[in-house]
Structure formats: structure tokens, C-alpha cells
Design brief:
The protein has about 375 residues and is α/β, with parallel strands linked by helices. It has two domains: about 15-250, Aspartate Aminotransferase, domain 2; about 255-380, Aspartate Aminotransferase, domain 1. About 40% of the residues lie in helices and about 15% in strands. It has helices spanning about 15-25, 35-45, 60-70, 85-95, 110-120, 140-150, 200-210, 240-250, 255-270, 310-315, 335-340, 345-355, 365-380; strands at about 50-55, 75-80, 95-100, 125, 150-155, 165, 165-170, 175-180, 190-195, 280, 290, 295-300, 355-360. A seven-stranded mixed beta sheet has the order 1-9-8-5-4-2-3, sandwiched between helices. Helix 4 links the parallel strand 2 (about 75-80) and strand 3 (about 95-100). The chain is globular. About 50% of the residues are buried. The structure holds pyridoxal-5'-phosphate. Pyridoxal-5'-phosphate binds next to helix 3 and helix 4.
Length: about 375
């Protein structure tokens, strides 16, 4: 039995991260400023996109994407039911209506044939979620979007390092939102990024994120002297601070090293967990790069009398933290009451909801930690 609790999704923070934040704290400029600018530039370059705008979270970013892409009350937006609540909530905050779609039971990705079934004359956009870091079938989604004149907003919360046919997901049409929440592959504690190749949309996102002030308003307190600002939109307070950006920049330098570590863990778990009553994640699709954000297992209910909740409680008692990604949105009371969904509406997502649990997969994990996870699982099914 372990001495300490293995917290699910605990970030890997090191001396250089602490130093970077300390330097910003000592610099006298802790709000939105030069570090945010630098972080945006570095991120845009990594993704291979023209514009990146830092925001306070992915949820905020998705909300601004929906607004900046011109969606309006009454418009319908296709969202997979197997996702985190923020994907659908961003649509609701903008006054539009999320329309849920089922996913593949094993890749957990939005099902293009179900997208087609759910399109109505009111459908204006699709939000594909690149689940666990696995890229969706983008060719197929682009085709559907082109046929029906739909905007595509990518939820890249899991997918910083992911690639589809050789390119990072953040330069796909039309716009993407990333998360730097604590558990994500790169963390700023809270934070996010919106990427797009459209200059006008990028400028809108920037303005909407900071009160609706004219561009570069953050410079108004700089040593260039005071500058007046103008309000051009009733904006939000969705900006990132330099404290967050300095942590982001420092984490960013280690992104590929951390990715390497998670890809080792991926192989280790795959080798060690074979033969248990578990459905392992399917291998990455050809000509894609999986972001390796989550290692999601499904309990094989045909091969064990245990339930998923029993398994995660047993792991907890052995000091191993887990996550559940996710209970499908249409099974939650709010979406049932507000949108009329019922249990039984999306069989594949329900199959996942009943069986899914994620084991610790952070780059922070030591070989010992990973071994503890494996032996705990083995002892549960002995
Ligand atoms: C984490 C997450 C979000 C929200 O990210 P925040 O930065 O916490 O707002 C959105 N979508 C998915 C799929 C997520 O996992």
C-alpha cells in the first residue's frame, strides 16, 4: 500500500516553473501584459496558426468563439453528449441551443453519421471534441460543414499536442479553444487559448475578452504614457494575467518532454493491463498524433461482477485517485429539464458512461506510481 495519496491529474511543477512565476511577481507587472503576449506568440508558432489569444479558461474561450462566429439566439449547435459540461454551457451562455449527438463507443469521438441526422435548418455550427487527445474524423466533419454551411469550433481542451494528417488541430477551420486547467497537459492553474487564422475574428476575441476595449488596451498603463481607450462592445472579463502566462511559458518549454513521458506511460499501461476485465483505449488512428491527455479504461461488465463505482472506490481505498470522463451530458438533470433529453437517447455514450474511469496519467507520475496503479488494479480483479 502507498504512503501518500496519488492525486488524479496532479500537474508536474518544477523549480523553473516556480522561478518563472517569482520573476513575474517581482517584475511589477502581474496583470495582462508582455508575458501574455509572449505566450500567445509561442503558442501560435507551435500550433502553426496565425493568431492565438490567451483567455482566462477554455470555457471562456468557447463562449467567445460562439459569439465571435456570429451565432445568435435560436441557432442550433451540434455538441457530442460525451464531453465536459463546458462545451455545451458555452453555447447556452451565448443564447444558442446545444443539440447532442452520440459518439463511437470505443474511440469516444463524435459520430459523423449522427451529426448528419441531427442537422436542421437552424443548425449553424459543430463543436467537435478531440476526446482524450484523439483527433476526430476531421475530413468527414469538414465535408458535412461545407455541405450545410456550418461553422466548426474545435474543443481542443485535451488536444494541445494532437495532430491530424501532419498538422496541429489548432490551425483547422474555423476556430479552436484550448484549456490550461490544472489537470490538462499544460497548466497555468486556470487559463485557455483561442486560435484562428482569421485576423478579424482574432481581433474580436481579444476585444470581447477584455471589457470590449479597443485592441492593446492593456498597454494603457505602460511606460509609453497614458492612453485613452474606447469601448466598442459590451465585453467580458476573460483575460489571462502575466502570472499565469509566465507559468504557461515555463510549462510550454517542457511540453514535448512531458508528452514523451505520457507516451511511455501509455505503452506501460497497455502492456500491463492486458488480460484484466478492462477495455483498453484503442490505438491511435493512422496518420494522426494522439495527444495522450487521458488514459481511459472501461470496465468489461461481461467479465466482472463489479461495477465501475465499486472499482473506483476500491482504488480510492488503495490511495489511487481516478477521474470519470464523463457521465454523458444528456444524463444530467439540467439538460434533461431544459432540452428534453432522456436516458436511452444516446446508447453509445451511455455504454461509456456506465463503464468509464481514468487512471493517473500525468507526466508527474514516477515509475513507482505507475506500478502502484497497475498492482492495485490487478489485486482488485484477482
Ligand atoms: C477541461 C475542459 C473544458 C474546460 O476547460 P476550462 O479551462 O476548465 O474552462 C472544456 N472542454 C473539455 C472537453 C474539457 O475537458
Amino acid at each position: 500500500m502507498r504512503d501518500s495519496y496519488l492525486v488524479f491529474g496532479s500537474p508536474r511543477l518544477e523549480e523553473d516553473d516556480i522561478k518563472a512565476v517569482e520573476e513575474t511577481l517581482k517584475s511589477g507587472w502581474i496583470g495582462t501584459g508582455p508575458r501574455v503576449n509572449e505566450f500567445e506568440k509561442a503558442f501560435a508558432e507551435y500550433v502553426g496558426v496565425k493568431y492565438a489569444v490567451a483567455v482566462s479558461s477554455c470555457t471562456a474561450g468557447l463562449h467567445l468563439c460562439v459569439l465571435a462566429m456570429g451565432l445568435e439566439p435560436g441557432d442550433e449547435v451540434i455538441v457530442p453528449t460525451m464531453t465536459f459540461a463546458a462545451t455545451a454551457n458555452a453555447v447556452i451562455h451565448a443564447g444558442a441551443k446545444p443539440v447532442f449527438v452520440d459518439v463511437d463507443p470505443y474511440t469516444m469521438l463524435i459520430d459523423p453519421s449522427d451529426i448528419k441526422r441531427k442537422i436542421t435548418p437552424k443548425t449553424k455550427a459543430i463543436i467537435p471534441v478531440h476526446f482524450a487527445g484523439r483527433p476526430c474524423n476531421i475530413d468527414e466533419i469538414n465535408k458535412i460543414a461545407a455541405e450545410h454551411n456550418l461553422v466548426i469550433i474545435h474543443d481542443n481542451a485535451h488536444a494541445i499536442e494532437s495532430e491530424y494528417h501532419g498538422a496541429k488541430l489548432g490551425n483547422l477551420k474555423d476556430i479552436s479553444a484550448y484549456s490550461f486547467y490544472v489537470t490538462k497537459n499544460l497548466t497555468t492553474a486556470e487559463g485557455g487559448m483561442v486560435t484562428t487564422n482569421d485576423e478579424e475574428i482574432a481581433a474580436k476575441i481579444k476585444i470581447y475578452a477584455l471589457h470590449g476595449l479597443t485592441k492593446d488596451a492593456w498597454k494603457r498603463f505602460s511606460d509609453d504614457g497614458y492612453k485613452h481607450y474606447q469601448i466598442v462592445y459590451p465585453g467580458f472579463k476573460y483575460n489571462m494575467t502575466d502570472i499565469q502566462a509566465s507559468l504557461g511559458l515555463s510549462q510550454f518549454r517542457k511540453l514535448e518532454k512531458f508528452y514523451e513521458r505520457r507516451s511511455q506511460l501509455w505503452n506501460y499501461y497497455h502492456n500491463e493491463l492486458k488480460g484484466l476485465p478492462l477495455i483498453l483505449p484503442v490505438e491511435p488512428e493512422k496518420n494522426t498524433r494522439h495527444g495522450f491527455h487521458l488514459f481511459i479504461l472501461m470496465l468489461d461488465l461481461n467479465k466482472t461482477p463489479l461495477t465501475r463505482d465499486q472499482v473506483i472506490n476500491k482504488l480510492h481505498s488503495m490511495k489511487i485517485g481516478t477521474g470519470v470522463h464523463y457521465i454523458a451530458l444528456h444524463l444530467h438533470p439540467y439538460y434533461q429539464e431544459a432540452l428534453g433529453y432522456r436516458n436511452g437517447d444516446f446508447p453509445n455514450a451511455e455504454y461509456i458512461s456506465e463503464r468509464t474511469f481514468s487512471i493517473p496519467f500525468s507526466a508527474k507520475l514516477t515509475d513507482e506510481d505507475a506500478k502502484d496503479v497497475v498492482s492495485a488494479l490487478k489485486s482488485i480483479f484477482e
